[in-house]
Structures are given as structure tokens and as C-alpha cells.
DNA sequence: GTCTATACCAAGATAGAC
DNA sequence: GTCTATCTTGGTATAGAC
């Protein structure tokens, strides 16, 4: 009785790779490095588990690829927001760009996951390089002062935390959280309410 | 040829419990929830793996106990820093209290780990409650305005990240990092240089 | 380029002795 | 209160077919 499509639609490697990386980002973000299985990633991407391993070598290398992609996506988003009036306005644009990336499921969280793995002998150094790279971009390319860079970064880390915590779920029901959103984000709730992940979203 | 001490020194349950929780904090902090094994915790605490499970039920319950302890320790440290002149001075004292807790190995990181698990059906709600509890303490008990609370929290999240990333290792060799430390911490590097974890610290 | 089958190991949890 | 031994599951990675 032939249940259709055994070997999924064939696809050029590069394209499939990008597809898997996107899905892996969301899975790593939600489950952490240790909590993620290559099978979970495979399921999310609609391919077999051995294929994921085959394509990236090991789970660790897959994570590094995810991290690399995430930091490049972030850097691009920031760079795209730089042109135009500088100072407060530029910071505002960059903040909006950052919040806009919430739509890229798991991007902020996977970066945090990597940062938290600073003690790992192989992921740690990569994570530090990534963090420093963004720091330099913000300070040198966007021209923020050190104090401005610090505040910008700190705000970013807070946003990451709020997103990862799924605090958005409580928005509108919990006044505590409403006020937090009011101060934490560089724009009104409407802008990002439909991109925030929900508490019961699998990833 | 009797290699000594088979059943380790007996100890009242409450005391052993606290001891295990401390060590588990460091292990969870360094390896994440998924990356932590009950055996790793057992080794760190110098007891057998089944005993850890026996005492806490499951790995998940152990993590919840660690989270609960961490948030209580943090709340106490903040409360102890409230009495005295308010405004900037109080914020400064609270910031110092926060940095001082770096000596409690893994405390900040384990909180972050919990926050990143916001999507988890059982850990998520606990993590949100913990975050909100501290938010309320900072705003209501310490009397910070919403904007001040937000900045205080944001700075805290940045400190967590820097600590977890083991950026301290590069201090003194990398000028980028020196300037970051200069702006991110509420005190000079000397105050915390010997409590910051190193990149190769197992946990 | 993608799958199925499987070897192998690691980790959580239980049983039960001391 | 604490251990040793062990059962069981599930996850990484390999082999090899299509």
C-alpha cells in the first residue's frame, strides 16, 4: 500500500544545507546544545538522522555551522541598518533590526546558548570570537561610544532573555510584564507581538 | 589491599543536600541542562550517581531545586544591599552584590540556563516566576523606576553573558575586552579578576 | 543526494545490600 | 545515608543500498 515519498525530493546540497541550518537553529535554540538530538533536527528538517550527520560530520560541527550562520545573519542585519542619520536614530534603527530578527526562529537564543558554552574547549573560542565580532561592529562600524555599545549590548541581552523565557505569552494578562516590555523594547508591542515565540511552541 | 572510604563520610541529609546543590549549580552552569549528567554532578559532589537521583527524584527535579536555590541566594544578596542611601548609591551597592555572586560558582549562568529553557513545559514556568520575582524585588523593594529596573536588569544580563563566555581570560591581552570590562562592570577589574571563571575551568 | 539498518555507548533510573 | 550492580532507553555515528 505504498505510503509515498520514501527518498524525499532531491535537492542541491547547498540548498538543503541552508534549510537544515535554519531548522537546526530553532531546535538548538529551544533545547540547548546538550538537549538537542540530531534526530530532532532531522525531523524538523524532514530528512533522515544519518543524513544530517553525514552532511555536517558531527553534532558539534553542526552547532558550529549554526552559530556561524547566526552571527553572519545578525551582522548583516546590523550593517543594513547603519546607513542614514547617526546617533540616537541609528541606534534606534539597529535596535529595530535586532527585534526584527526575532522572526528568524531561534537566532537570538542560539547565540545565547553558544555564549553560555564559553567553557567548552571547542565551542567556547568560537563563541567568544562571535561576541567580539559583533562588539567591534557595533562600536567601530556603527560608531557607537563604548558606553553606548555597552548599553546597546546589555539591552540586546535582555531582549534575548525575554524572548527565550517566552515572556510574551503573559503580555496583556500580566501588568508586570507589560511594563517590562514597555521599557525593554525599542518599539511598541504591536511591532513584535506576532513574531514572539509562545510558551508551548515546540521550537 | 583496602583502598579506604567506601561509603563516604555520613552526613545529615539536609547538609548533604545543600552540598550537592552547590556543586550541581556549577555543573549545570557549565554544561547546560541537557549536557549535564547526574553522574557528573555526583562526581563533583563526591557521592554516587544513584544517590543523587535517590535524593532528588529525577534530574529535572534536581535542576528545579538548583534554580530555586539560586534565585533565593540572589534575592537575599539584593535585599542585603538595599538598606542605606537610595538612588545611584543603592544601585551601585546592588550591582556590586551581583558581581560579588560570581564567586558562587555558576549561579548567574544557571539562572541564564533556566531562562533559555523558557519553552520547556515544566522548567519554563518556574524560570518565568523566578525572573519576575527578581524584577519585582528590584522595582518594588529596591524602589527603582521602571527604566532603572530595565537598565539594571539589562546590565545584569550582559554580565551573565561575559561571565559565561569566560571573557575574563582575555583581559589584559585583548584591548577590545578591556574596554568592554571597563564599561560593563560597576567596579574596577581588580575587584572580580580572581573570582571570574577561566576558559579551561571544568565548571 | 538520501535512505534503512544497525553497532555501540552513554545516561537515567531501579533494586537491594550494608 | 550511601553504595554496587544492573536494567533500559535512547542517541551518535557507521555501513552500505538505491
Explain how this protein is built:
The structure is a homodimer of 203-residue chains. Chain A is mainly α. Chain A has a single domain, classed as Tetracycline Repressor, domain 2. Chain A contains ten helices and no strands. Chain A has helices at 13-35, 38-45, 49-56, 59-81, 88-100, 107-116, 123-141, 146-165, 175-184, 189-192. In chain A, α1 crosses α4. The longest helix of chain A has 23 residues, at 13-35. The mean pLDDT of chain A is 93. At the A-B interface, α1, α6, α7, α8 and α9 of A face α1, α6, α7, α8 and α9 of B.
Order of helices and strands of chain A: HHHHHHHHHH
Name the biggest interface: A-B, 55 and 55 residues
Instruction: Please name the fourth-level CATH homologous superfamily of chain A.
Output: Tetracycline Repressor, domain 2
Q: Over the alpha carbons, how many angstroms does the gyration radius of chain A reach?
A: 18 Å
CATH architecture of chain A: Orthogonal Bundle
Shape of chain A: globular
Structural class of chain A: mainly alpha
What is the number of helices of chain A?
10
Beta-strand percentage of chain A?
under 5%
CATH class division of chain A:
Mainly Alpha
CATH topology of chain A: Tetracycline Repressor, domain 2
Q: Classify the helix fraction of chain A into a percent range.
A: 55-70%
- The termini of chain A sit apart by 34 Å
How is the biggest beta sheet of chain A arranged?
none
What oligomeric state best describes the polypeptide chains here?
Answer: homodimer
Mean pLDDT of chain A: 93
Question: Which parts of chain A are unreliable, with pLDDT below 50 for 5 consecutive residues or more?
Answer: none
